[in-house]
Specification:
Number of strands: 13
Mean pLDDT: 90
Order of helices and strands: EEEHEEEEEHEHEHEHHHEEHHHH
CATH architecture of the largest domain: 3-Layer(aba) Sandwich
Radius of gyration: 21 Å
Number of domains: 3
Structural class: alpha/beta
Largest sheet: 6 strands, mixed
Helix content: 25-40%
Strand order of the largest sheet: 10-9-8-11-13-12
CATH superfamily of the largest domain: P-loop containing nucleotide triphosphate hydrolases
Number of helices: 11
Strand content: 15-25%
Bound molecules: guanosine-5'-diphosphate, zinc ion
Length: about 325
């Protein structure tokens, strides 16, 4: 009689083309998903993501291969809308902090990217952290003003420079004993920061054209990096547009903290603060009490969610 195969609990490091690299204790196993149910149960671009805890049955013949038979329900999830796949894509599972890496220039500062990441993080149960990299470069007044605004709203904001090392120790201290997912537009210096945090990593740093040459294989998926320094980091591909998924339009306003003092006073409840009459949020924008660009950012998210819903159902 052949003995029952023993199943192990493992953590997913990354997945490419339906093959998942998982870590069970000290052992890495290449796994496939067993059974249609698991593949279809989650109608997303990727049913399993870095950071997922899974049940794995090692192959009796080939000890570095196995089958994933179950996924432990996620504590948190960071999700974006994958336009090409027309489905939500889970960037990270079970992470605690969503680190939004930005830069004052090259590429230009994009606060609307931060707004989106805040919504994605908070709806998925993660705490956002705004990191302004390249603080060795001059910072325009309008950029520092926006950072101050995020800070006043209660978000943690940290300046650092991968080039000079400034602020990196503080960043490491915040991330200690947590799992952090790093998100940023290409070129903000995400790989450079990770290389300073964990010098053994040797992530490729460089200009964008070079990076794109690496092709989809290495630019298109997230990866959990269990580092010897005790940091647990999920690196995501450089993202140009962070489109939201799995967020309801009526939820978005709750993740714009500067809207909170006004929302109760809108005449229509629930109010989407779009074209409803006597909307206290829109009035606060007109009176200069809410930053006009934050409101614009909000409206674009609403519009986009309507479009992605259409794409998902159409
Ligand atoms: P990623 O696409 O976000 O991973 O960005 P990279 O780490 O590849 O960096 C993109 C470019 O920004 C490279 O030319 C880096 O040398 C440069 N860079 C990264 N960090 C800093 C920094 O702190 N200061 C300055 N001035 N340049 C930086
Ligand atoms: Zn309103």
């Amino acid at each position: 009689m052949t003995p029952e195969p023993v199943s192990l609990e493992a953590e997913v490091l990354y997945g490419i083309n339906s093959i998942y690299m998982v870590l069970a204790g000290e052992t890495r196993l290449q796994c496939r998903i067993k059974g249609k149910k698991l593949k279809e149960a989650q109608r997303s671009y990727n049913p399993i993501a870095p950071g997922d805890l899974v049940e794995v049955t090692p192959d009796a013949m080939s000890p570095n291969e196995g089958m994933i038979s179950d996924v432990v329900p996620r504590r948190t999830r960071l999700v974006r809308w994958n336009k090409k796949g027309r489905a939500p894509q889970i960037l990270a599972a079970n992470a605690d902090i969503a680190v939004c890496v930005t830069s004052p220039a090259a590429p230009p500062f994009r606060p609307r990217f931060i707004d989106r990441l805040i919504v994605a993080a908070e709806t998925g149960g993660l705490t956002p952290l705004v990191v302004m990299n390249k603080c060795d470069l001059p910072c325009a007044e309008r950029v520092s003003e926006r950072l101050t605004h995020y800070h006043r709203m209660g978000y943690q904001v940290l300046s650092c420079s991968a080039r000079t090392g400034e602020g990196v120790r503080e960043l490491a201290a915040i991330l200690r004993d947590r799992t952090a997912v790093f998100v940023g537009q290409s070129g903000v210096g995400k790989s450079s920061i990770l290389n300073v945090l964990a010098p053994g990593l040797h992530l490729r740093v460089g200009d964008l054209s070079q990076k794109h040459d690496r092709g989809n294989h290495t630019t298109n998926f997230s990866v959990l990096l269990p580092l010897e320094t005790g940091l647990r980091i999920i690196d995501t591909p450089g993202i140009r547009e962070l489109e939201l998924a799995e967020v309801l339009p009526e939820e978005v306003g709750f993740h714009f903290r500067d809207f909170a003092p006004y929302m109760q006073s809108c005449s229509y409840q629930p109010c989407l603060h779009d074209d409803e009459p006597r909307c206290a949020v829109a009035e606060a924008v007109q009176h200069g009490e809410i930053h006009a660009d934050r409101y614009e950012s909000y409206l674009r998210i609403l519009q986009e969610l309507r479009e992605t819903r259409k794409a998902a159902h159409g």
